[in-house]
Amino acid sequence: CIRDRACFAGAMFAIGAQGETADTHMQIAEGITKTCYEMYRRTITGLAAENVVFHGNYDFSPNIRYYILRPETVESLFVMWRKTHDPIWREFGWDIFTAIETKCKVAYGYSGIVDVGGAFTTYDNVQQSFFLAETLKYLYLLFSEDDLIPLDKYVFNTEAHPLSIFTD
After folding, report:
1. CA–CA gap between residue 78 and residue 36 (Å, rounded)
2. Which of 46, 59, 82, 102 is 20 to 30 A distant from 119 in Cα terms?
3. Hey, which residues does 2 pair with through a beta bridge?
4. Would you give the DSSP letter of residue 8?
5. In a 3-state reduction of DSSP, which class is residue 160?
6. Which entry of 20, 30, 38, 50 is annotated as an active-site residue?
7. pTM over 0.85
8. Of 144, 131, 72, which Cα lies nearest the Cα of 101?
9. Which backbone phi and psi does 88 adopt, to 5 degrees?
10. 30 counts as catalytic
11. Could you give phi then psi for residue 102, rounded to 5 degrees?
């Protein structure tokens, strides 16, 4: 099984793709990030379940079915876009953004949903703090120019705050 929280690993491998193992790490980053996107794409709502269980090589199903506006997949989409400039990463990000706007937007903000596979949307009535601090920030950066918080000059901490990289 894989938890949506693990989907930051695509970004981690892409950022670490340097030297002799760069190609291998980028392949791993791409595989993880595409798998995490599929966790969104394969549901009725277009939103990822908190946890999925794999059945064989390419099939999986939601296990823990709620969605709480997590940032990890869009973080990896953002980093993959910056590292490759392959438009597929922006397309995937737009799909996720559209699903959030369609399924999670409520009168005074955004809410997680109880069942990503449900025919009707039931809200959990919670807008997690990381939604604004991370999810929306990474989506914004995904569609921004590369000179806005360039990855060769900044690193993001676990709450998506950019920190300058010190150089000698």
Report:
1. 13
2. 59
3. 52
4. G
5. coil
6. 50
7. yes
8. 131
9. -60, -35
10. no
11. -75, -40
